[in-house]
Predict the structure.
Amino acid sequence: MTTLSPTISSATRLEALRARLEALQPGLIAVSGGVDSRFLVHVSRLWNLEFQTVHAAGPHQSALEQRQTMALLRAQDVIPHVIRFDPLSQPEVRDNSRLRCYWCKKALFSIFQEMAAAESPRSVLDGTHLDDLTAHRPGQKALQELGVHSPLAQAGLTKADIRRAAARLDLEAPDQPSRACLLTRFPYDRRVTVADLEAVGRVEDGLSALGLSRFRFRVTGRERNLLQIHPDESHALRDQEEHLRDLIVGAGLGSFEVSITPRLSGYFDAPIDSGAHS
């Protein structure tokens, strides 16, 4: 994939993004609800480009996250075509294999490709950015196989670039925290059910209700599960410790320990955090 040099200015990167979007219209933008795909929709509208939006709702997102996604899109005056999609319908996803993201993206974006082709030959776009290409992202292979376009990455935009540009261009919630698919809360090769996803979703929605935004609750497969909290929000342990325990036990997720860590992503792709504490 061709990207711009790291020394290129943000303005030049945005110019490159605009040129790519102009070449890809008319098209279909897959909107996850995160800031990256919302930014892609935002600039396409600012530049009067011809794109429709589609969003897949399903058990991989918590109930609160689904509501927040729709609220943020409505704030942009965006009404996406919403489809219901259950990743667990794919055996490799249900079994939580290391390639679950590949099979999930393959199934989901095949649907989007069919939707786009039903009207006319149209481009399908997603919100992948440059940083995603350096992380463990098996789903990228599926997107490449299907011919899905990732114009943010192709224009050389990083997550930080997107947040800065989103704030400058008045996108709602430019600092929106990343919330990965709920399947990432479970260890590889551990079969996951809808009830499992709902339980973790209830816990994380409860954490959000406490005013937290940077956390993950991991079902570790060991004796105790793990609540990861960013250092900036560690005050919750002092102020809400009893409530946190009631919330997690009430969801049927048993005992847990706490890790104060700035690294919230990729837990099951990295060595166990030895700094976890109760």
Observations:
- Confidence is low (pLDDT under 50) at residues 1-6, 272-278.
- Residues 164 and 174 are 8 Å apart (CA to CA).
- The domain at 10-168 is CATH 3.40.50.620 (Rossmann fold).
